[in-house]
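2024-03-11 09:14:02 DEBUG pipeline.ingest accepted 1 chain
2024-03-11 09:14:02 DEBUG pipeline.ingest length=326
2024-03-11 09:14:03 DEBUG pipeline.predict start
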Amino acid sequence: MQTEAWRWQAPGAPAQLQRAALELPPLGDLEVLIENRIVAFNPVDWKLIASGHPAWQPGQVPGVDGMGVVVAVGSGVHHWRIGSRVAYHTDLRRHGSFARHTSVPARALLAAPEHLTDEAAASFPCPGLTAWQALAKFPELRGESILINGAGSNVGRFAVCLSLTAGMRVFASAGSGHRGWLRQRGVQAVVDYRVPDWIEQLRVANGGEPFSAAIDLVSEQAAQTLIPHLGYYGHLVSVLGRVESNPQPAFTHCLSLHEIALGAQHAYGTDRQWWGLVKAGERMLQQLASGELPLPPMRIGHFDELPHYLGEFSREGQGFKYLLRI
């Protein structure tokens, strides 16, 4: 079977993607073929198009997130039926979502609720599951203080809402345009990250106390600056880089440093871990459908213009979810 896809040939800009036919390989026993309805962009997409990936060869189809309808199932798949609406985050080592059809491991599929729009379902997998993984690193949540650095991002939006639902006291750095909705949701203090003493201001808002936990959504370097503001037995989750070492002396603050890599679960996660992640993701999709979780601001285009919109997203898409209809 053939489909149509935007294909990568070498490191470069999104404009260098080529639209071409793709011969789909035979479906694996534990795979499902999705006819995509919506393609979603994430920062990893344009970053890998620019730099490449060790597993990519010319002709690779990028894209990790999408949603659509099941049109074929492998011989070993018994829990999905033809016509099911699903969302997914797929493996970077495989052909991805920038195509009319994508084969996805069956264990990675998320059932889309009946009353959730296609666009909302597609907006969820990478940022929503990453935020869930970040919160899952913390042993205690209710009543604890958490600092979220980069709360205006798509992952940050979900991290804020999950933290508040868990009963945490949330403090956030974000651009000034995000202050209103963050305060409305119940964040205790929001400071623009461009202000030089933003973290000191947030600490004052926390009664001068250090934070119990922090999630950094900016960079490895930014994550390191948060360490002095964590208290005894504090936890730091770094999403966009790995903090290699703890600068605090041994046997003092006893901090725990955590890394997040949703994509790595495809290579290293067990079936049991996938089951837990999918169930958590489907609960969050239900919360999106009911309005308990807010939808991100969306910019919606068409599959025919994918390179254009991906380039725009890489330059100025912060805080928006870019989606393409097929």
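2024-03-11 09:14:41 DEBUG pipeline.report Residues 98 and 199 are 39 Å apart (CA to CA).
2024-03-11 09:14:41 DEBUG pipeline.predict end
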